[in-house]
Design goal:
228 residues, mainly alpha, three-stranded antiparallel beta sheet, 3 strands, rod-shaped
Amino acid sequence: MLMGNVRSMYETRITALKEHPRRKGRYVVEIAGQAIGAISVESIAELGLRVGDDVSPELRERIETGARRVACFDRAMDALARRARSRADLGRWLREREFAAPDIEAALDRLVALGLLDDHAFARGYARTRLAAGRGFGPRRVAAELSRRGVARGVVDAVLAELADEAGAPDERTAARAVAERRAKSLRGLAPEVARRRLVAFLVRRGFGQGTAFEAARLTLAGSRLTD
C-alpha cells in the first residue's frame, strides 16, 4: 500500500522545468517525466512551481491553460514578425491553426496592450504604401481591402482622411493619371474607344471613382499616340 501511495505521488510531481530549446523565456513543465507544455517565467513565479512539488488537478489545469496561451501568443508573434496584420486578420489566422477562442482573445488583448497590434497603425501603413502615386490603387480599393482584413469602417475612413491631408500626398486625380499612363502602354494598337473603355474599367477596378477614371483615361489617351 505504501509503494502505491509513493507511485501515486510521483505521478503528480513536477520532475523538471527545462528551458525551451527554441523559445527564449519559455520553460517546459514535466510532470512524472511527461512534458505538459511550455509556459513563461512569469507563470512559473505566479504559480509557485518548483521541481519536486506535487501538482493538484486544479494546478495542472492552470499549467495546461498557461501553456496553451503561451503557444497561441508565440504563434501570433511569429505571424506579426513576418508581416503586419489587423486584429481580425490575426485572429482568423490563429483560428485556422485550431487555437481555442479564449486563448486567441487573450493573445490579441495582450498584443494590443503591448502596442504590437494596432488596427489604426496597420491601416495607415497599408493605405500609405498603396495610395502612393503610380502604385495602382485608389481609395475605394484600399478601403475595400482594409475592410476585408477586418479593419472597422470608422478606422478606415479616419486613416484615408488623414492621408489625404498629409503634405505632399497625391490626390486621387494625380494617382489615377499615374496608373492610367502606365496601363495605357498595354493598350497600344487598340481602337480609341476600345482603349478608353478598357482603361476606365481597369481604373474603376483599382478603386478610383468613375468620374476620376473617365477623366484620367481621356487625358492619358488624348496626350499619347498609343492608340493611333
